[in-house]
Amino acid sequence: MGRILLIILAVVAALFLVGPLLGFALGLLKWGLIIGGVAVAVVLASKWFGRA
Predict the structure, then answer these.
(1) How far apart are CA 46 and CA 27, in angstroms?
(2) How far apart are alpha carbons 45 and 47 in whole angstroms?
């Protein structure tokens, strides 16, 4: 019984530690996609205005 509780406690502690790290990684991914989208839009706009 004690070993099961220890395993459950370890899983809960791991989730508490991984949660913020996962949130930070997803935040970085979100900002990377936003910055990448803006960069692609700028490149396409510069090509379009350069041709016009």
Answers:
(1) 29
(2) 5
**How far is Cα 50 from Cα 15, in angstroms, rounded to an integer?**
51
What pLDDT digit, counting tens, does each position of 29-40 carry?
999 999 999 999
Please indicate, yes or no, whether the overall pTM of this predicted structure exceeds 0.70. no
How long, in residues, is the chain? 52
Torsion over CA of 8, 9, 12 and 13, rounded to 10 degrees?
-150
User: Which structure tokens are listed for 29?
Assistant: 């991914």
